[in-house]
Amino acid sequence: MAAADIACGSGDPLWRADLLHLNDWPSGLAAAYLAWRGRQIPTILTVHNLAYQGLFDRSRLPHLGIPDAAFQINGVEFHGKLSFLKAGIFYSSHITTVSSTYAEEITRPEFGCGLDGLLRTRAGEGRLDGIVNGIDESWDPSKDPYLVSPFSANNWRGKRANANDVRKSFGLAVSRGPLFAVVSRLVHQKGVDLTIAAAESIVSQGGQVAVTGRGEARLEYASQALAERHSGSIGVKIGYDEADARRMYAGSDFLLMPSRFEPCGLSQMYAQRFGSLPIAHRTGGLADTIEDGINGFLFGEHSLHRFLDAIRRGLETFGSKSRLTAMRWAAMSRPEGWDRSAAKYQDVYSRACQTAAIAA
Fold this sequence. Notes:
14 helices; 13 strands; EC 2.4.1.21; glycosyltransferase; transferase; Rossmann fold; Glyco_trans_1; alpha/beta; Starch_synth_cat_dom
């Protein structure tokens, strides 16, 4: 409500917003407040993960200043609940997601979390776009202060030093075999169960796995139990540490990312920038940022069989120095900054402002 008030000029009578950009369910109602006041200020809602919707009991309506008439299918109601996210999608001028593939996926029932019908309508109106995230300039292995040793696409020596540091930190044995990393929330969405199931195959082929993250208790426990069974080959740290994460990207040969769905994903782009090849499910932003066999590996059907096949291709590449070097170079050379994304947001802003001007 405060965001809507400020956008309307209540904070400064000599200034009002040209546009209000909202992110996810916590700010979704701002678009609705503007609509209920009859204000023509355009609103952009970026959906980072449709699964998190902000659902509350309808008894909250009067406390939040929501008109009773808005509690309907063409409003804030979602299966008898008040949905902040639906309010944002329904009342915003335009919706964006954080990758092009995810923008298409959420118009289908299997990914739409019950909102696919409304999102199909918005897509048909030309009011739904996907703009892949970028990563900031600090992700540069040639000058990252967290790394044990810097390196670049033209000088790989420092990568081995970071790998050795990761092995020591995670209690792994000294090895010249492939090192696989998992830097992730340990939740169902991220396909951690597939990673656990695939880990023994990786170890049996001379690989090692380092895992860091926090999430669902059952997956944390299963990851720790796996490490106990394969001491020296699998290491797990529950929690998150920035230095550990950056060294894992820098030291690993592959990043495992078998997400069931992934609105964008940043880990695969961090890994690519640090010369680690992502092995990922072909979904959402993973499909948009990874070229199979060029700068990473993708698998289609979300199954252990297909995941293991992608890992096998990774191991074969590791056995070919020339191919591994070529793929690392391609991964590190991929443009992943914010310039292209910013230009696309500027286009969305311009279109939304033009539409609002015509409506006014």
